[in-house]
Amino acid sequence: MHIKVTSAHVRAARGLLKWTVRDLAEHSGVHRNTITKIEADQAKHEPTIAAVVRALEAAGVEFINGDGPGVRFRKKKR
After folding, report:
1. Phi and psi (nearest 5°) for 65?
2. Domains identified in the chain, total number
3. Roughly how many angstroms between the first and final C-alpha of the chain, as a whole number?
4. Position 78 in a domain
5. Overall pTM > 0.85
6. Cβ atoms < 10 Å from Cβ of 36
7. For residues 22-34, b (16+ Cβ closer than 10 Å) or e, as one string?
8. Does residue 2 form part of some domain?
9. Nearest 5°: phi and psi at 61?
10. Angle formed at CA 23 by CA 50 and CA 5, multiple of 5 degrees
11. What are phi and psi of 42, to 5 degrees?
12. What are the tens digits of pLDDT across the range 4-54?
């Protein structure tokens, strides 16, 4: 199932990882000003958002939807 990642997802994922905007920028290769715009729902460039999502997923984040956007650490496979 493919989840449409929202600005709330990105903010929550960064918080879960305890990353600053600068940390996410370094891991994703996306400028920190652009990260701020994504988190404010002011940036819609899909390839840029995809780079941010890849960085967060590589760090172990899983994006979920329940009653609203959510994130959690990916369950380890046994």
Report:
1. -130, 135
2. 1
3. 21
4. no
5. yes
6. 14
7. ebbbebbebeeeb
8. no
9. -85, 140
10. 30
11. -110, 0
12. 899 999 999 999 999 999 999 999 999 999 999 999 999 989 999 999 999
